[in-house]
Amino acid sequence: MIVLVLAVALWVLGWALATPKLLRWGAIAMLWAGAVLVHLTLPDDAALRASIGGDARTWGAVGVVAALLLAYRAGLAALRRRAAPLPPAPPSGPFAAGEIARYSRHILLREIGGAGQARLKAARVLVIGAGGLGSPALLYLAAAGVGTIGVIDDDVVEDSNLSRQIIHMTDALGVPKVQSAKETLNALNPYVTVLPYQRRMGGDTQSLIAEYDLILDGSDNMATRYLVNTACVAAGKPLISAALTQWEGQISLYHPPLSPCYACIFPHAPEAGLAPACAEAGVLSPLPGVIGAMMAVEAVKHITGAGEGLAGRLLIYDALDAQVRSITVARNAKCPVCGVGS
Ligand SMILES: [Zn+2]
Known about the structure:
Number of domains: 2
CATH superfamily of the largest domain: NAD(P)-binding Rossmann-like Domain
Bound molecules: zinc ion
Shape: elongated
Strand order of the largest sheet: 3-2-1-4-5-6-7-8
Number of helices: 14
Helix content: 40-55%
CATH topology of the largest domain: Rossmann fold
Largest sheet: 8 strands, mixed
Distance between the termini: 101 Å
């Protein structure tokens, strides 16, 4: 009886002092533990022991019943939580409700955050070529939440593409690459807009490039690289260009006058046969994955302003020897594309 009165008094006192419920339950649990301790330590005929029941088993039973009641309550609360539908996440800034969770790991990065993710959503990136380099670059640009992605390519998907052009599935054989790429990207991230251009880079290249903030060149031939570089210099657009041969890949960001253009570093196309295309010389299946993903990394960095970009540096990855080198590259004042008098 005394213990019950004390328990009620503790609860009322806790309530009057606005103590948290958990603390009040804790105080009552300590009172119970004290009563059990009295029974276990004092002799049978002790007056205190007789006044609070006299039998440790009664207090043990009280404890078991209380524990069962608490477990029942906790179980019921858990069931209710599971049954209740999760409230939809409120849209924040330019994002739809489903995008916040999708980009949460990006938003956690100090260098990107919500502001950087919003920049990615507002960005327009044009990818030249939906092949080996374009595939991983496109996939990661879409997954990362780049809002508008243009892709230009005039080829259809062939058997020999499938070992490394991972944006195209086997059932896309014979389908234009830009269409196959758009379908994969839409399935990966329905919140980004994909604009396919099924054509070769040609006379209208410059007007197309002018519509985008950043250009990624993953084409497989020198002629296209020079064409894209010239158009980017004329339009003042930054260009991330990469290339592959067998076991080696290279990548840089070209943006004169801040850094060289592609023609500053490679003023002349190599003699025929010295830089054979992948179709002639072969290429390691995952190599475009590494370099294409690097293109996406540098694109995200460029758009969000995170870290040090590749402007003025040519990064070379030698897969066969597992070596990565970075070469400093400078502008050529006599560059036929961006130099003085060009
Ligand atoms: Zn140049």
